[in-house]
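Form 12-C: Joint structure prediction
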Amino acid sequence: MSGSVASGTPASGSSSGRAPGTGGLHVENLRVAFDGVDAVRTVSFELAPGECVALVGESGSGKTVTARALLGLSGGTVTATRLALDDTDLTGLSERQWRGIRGPRIGLVQQDALVSLDPLRPIGREIDDALRLHTTLGAAERRERALEVLAEVGMPDPAIRRAQRSGELSGGLRQRALIAAALALRPDVVIADEPTTALDAEVHRVVIDRLARLRDEGTAVLAISHDLGAVRRLADRIVVMRAGEVVEQGPTAQILDAPAHPYTRALVAAVPAGKPRGSRLSVGGPTVQNSGRTGEKRAGSPAKRPNDQSSERVLEAHGLTRRFGTFTAVDDVSLTLRAGETLGLVGASGSGKTTTARLLLGLDSPDHGLVELLGAPWNPLPERERRPRRALLGAIYQDALSSFDPRMTVGRILVDALTNGKTTRIRAHAAQIDALLAEVGLPASVSSRLPATLSGGQRQRVAIARALAPRPRVLLCDEPVSSLDVTVQAQVLDLLDELQERHGLAYLFISHDLDVVRHVSDRVAVMSAGRIVEQGETEQVFSAPAHSYTRGLLAAASSAD
Amino acid sequence: MTILPELPVLPAAAPTRAAEWRSRVMAPRVVAGAVLLGVLAAAVAPGLLAPGDPLAVHPVDAFSAPSLAHPFGTDDSGRDLYTRVVHGASASLLIGVAATLIGTLLGLVLGIAAGVGTRLTDAAVSRVLEVLFALPGLLLALVIIAFAGPGPIPATLAVGLATAPGYARIFRTRIRAVRSSEMVEAARVLGRGPLTLLVRHVLPNALAPVVVLATLGVGQAIVWASSLSYLGLGSPPPAPEWGAMLEAGRTYLQIAPWMTVFPGLAIVATAAATTVVGRAFAGAGRR
Amino acid sequence: MGATLKSAALKDAAPNGAALNLVRFIAGRVLGALFVLWAVATLIFFAIRLVPGDPAEAILGGPGSQASQEALDLVRRQYGLDQPLLVQYLDQLGRLARGDLGTSYSLKQSVSSVLAAQVPPTLLLASLSLVAAWILAVGVAWWSAGSGRVARAVSSGLEVVASAVPHFLLGSVLIVVFATGLGLLPPVSTGTPIGLVLPVVTLAVPVAGFLGQVTRDSLLDAAAAPFALTATARGEGPSGLFWRHLLRHAALPGLALSGWAFGSLLSGAIVVESLFARPGLGRTLLDAVTLRDIPLVTGVALVSALAYVVVVALGDLAEKAVDPRGQSA
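Section 2 - Result
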């Protein structure tokens, strides 16, 4: 049961005066169809006040459609044996009746407050709207209430922030504002749709904490997430969805520690947290030498990894500095990457990781400092002199699709990479293309497709194949799995691991995801405000961080587990 | 219902799209395609659609309202307007296409110079474009005619020159956007030189919509060219050209409105059809 | 990749003083305007010398006038046409800098006084039409957004036709229907408010068609954006969503097209003023072009270029007022 609103009860009434424990959301046999085709079917679960249920699943699983159906916003045809909030039947409500439910009874928190709050309006106005729509409060009282709600979510200087737009706030502050706008009416149920996606570790923790407190105060929380770490912290029960159906549901510990359904098992296995370097994450999956079970180390690894100080230095940065105007994006950064090893580069967004990557790739010139590739100068150097050695240094990116020429088929992309741009005619190189595709676990038939018609995982595989084609020694991976579903992420990480093993590649692996970095890296460098604040052996950095920033980063992340 | 559209990522969204595709998207395209085919047929073989002589004078029939014998009516000299509209297609279309060619080609030259060239050429071309934009559309065309004198060829030239800055700006923006795209960075990382980047990636992607733009532009060019004719600065009146027919009808608007309406409708139909077809191309290109 | 970083850096570097920004904005626009005016004057000055034909002949009524050699010489001396080209050019610039636009060949009075009389009617016509166009565009967008697919298809079709319809045809049809047919409104401009109705509608509809298309496209984008879902999920109804959230987003591309809208209105004014026998800049230009009255053509071009720069600056200010984020992507 939610606390009664301090001043002004929601116009639709009944949020106060219900006995605790009898309310909540009842969903039985929910079905959502678009033009007669089911997107979601036979979904049933209960959500009690003071409880958090997590809907877990990957893209296309129907979890978002389910959540929107609970707000009458799915856009499809919704049928259910029972769909009720407390004693209010939600089936067959008119649009006007729904408007009385949305806000005061059921609130929604989406991901990415930058676009989920109107970017052209001050956040105070967004909160004010909710109060104006559903309460009889006057303008002054509403302003008072908005300040209260902002203070409740831990917004510093609410009186100043109120007048700012989402774009003027930091990621953490704007996510708090988004939550405040949903909580202003004290809804009985809060639906949180991927509330922590794309947030840095610290903001992540703030959001999870706030939702946990909300639950503890008696609100029913429905969390939609693909992040099992966040789910473990927050949820009492988990509902696992796949392709529009519930495959399994139960208490959090049972689902995460002893999953019964094969899909849930694959999902849990794919989480990199706590899995040592070199162990497999993906179950089955189309990677090539697919022998080991998940969590098991491959024979011979990781002990024989040449990550000792004697192996060849393939990429080195000495005192790199890059300024944009008065802003120093990269400040005196020095790195060493040795043959066959993975160096993880972590840091919050805006810490200078991407600018560092551009300097290492020779896409941008440093104001000071030097990059060396295989012991020879690399940047700064005229591009003309770099070009013959570009084959040694490859790169894969977060958004593989936008790194391809949209007019070229996969085959032409690979021929171009194989022949160093001499031709894009496939005929003479068909065998090489097939071999390259097989190496990254793709069928030869992909060759004739356009990248836009492939799935996210397939695109990243093509990007890897293209990067491998010129036989590089170093691969720079800039957030390569950040926009992939967790099981696909597992497959791509396993593939990268196999390729490293087979070709002795050195990876510089950039990510904001500490679990992923910990899983893939031999050594880690931590970046903050343009500087490398700490670097060392992965386990050493993660288990005994020396720098206060690293400690804070790790604390924020681990408390979310 | 709210105006929230259907969720885009659902597998179930496909049939929705298909149904909408048929009803909302395809129907206007079919109509527009038919109109364009008709105009093209009239331009290539007017005699098939209207066997009469567009210049044949029948003073007795002057100012006849539309009837079975004269579906579009007749003009002040008793000439059959249907025949004249059909025979006018080639001249109007030719002016529209020629003006668009001049405009797009000049736009390409300026746009590529600004988009590909050094910072200095870009600044210079951008300044020139800025100045030309300050003399918008018909006004620039009129200024050009002030020097070149009236007539169909100066009018075509004027419309072409007046549309060039718009094309130039689009091409410049697109080239700049593609040059700084991740795709081009990825190709640079693979070791491609500036020429390869330009020829293989930047220009093909940036200039791909030139056909679409030109299709859209033909409609606009026909409207502008006929506006010039209407103002007495384009084709001289007896010629069966749509703009010139409008100028002839202007005097008799009150007593013989069909002299204005039918050539005008021909212009609107052609321009609207090229817009719809051009957008269809644009949509196909995006898919 | 680096774009976000760079823009963050720029934001950092930008001075916060709003007043300083405004001063910089105005100074930049004034310099830009001066450059454009100089360029237009120069362009026209040299264009006259490039095309065949004798300006002196044009002053005396064109090649058909059979002017005597003495008359031509007199005119040449009077207009400084016997001086070296550079002297003439500098002379012209000097006069323009003093605000002297010269004397019209055809009207035999100063270009400045002609313009002073002709600018206000066009300004009135164009501003009313712009307002009418925005009302029409937003109205149609609102109507079609709230309705089903059929309404959207109809309004989208109307917009395509409206933006393709030439002014002369629309005006003619309006005259035939409302003046000749129904006798409700005067067919030519009478100088009264009622006489403005048909010209304004004629001028506004094509602009509205175009604005409507871009407005509706961005309206649909805004309606699909997460913030629209957030607003709906707090119980906002369709009309609240439209007026409080979507309209601002939808209006942005239209405001960015202010320069284009100005061009369309001015181009249209040439036809509309001629069609409805209204006085104004457009008709003056048409007459000047027909008579090859170069000083008057130059004057109209300079005024229109100046107006263009002002309109674009106003459009930018309006855009900033709606979207204070700075560069909207």
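Section 3 - Comments
Chain B touches chain C through 56 residues (CB under 8 Å). Residues 1-17 of chain B have pLDDT under 50 and may be disordered.
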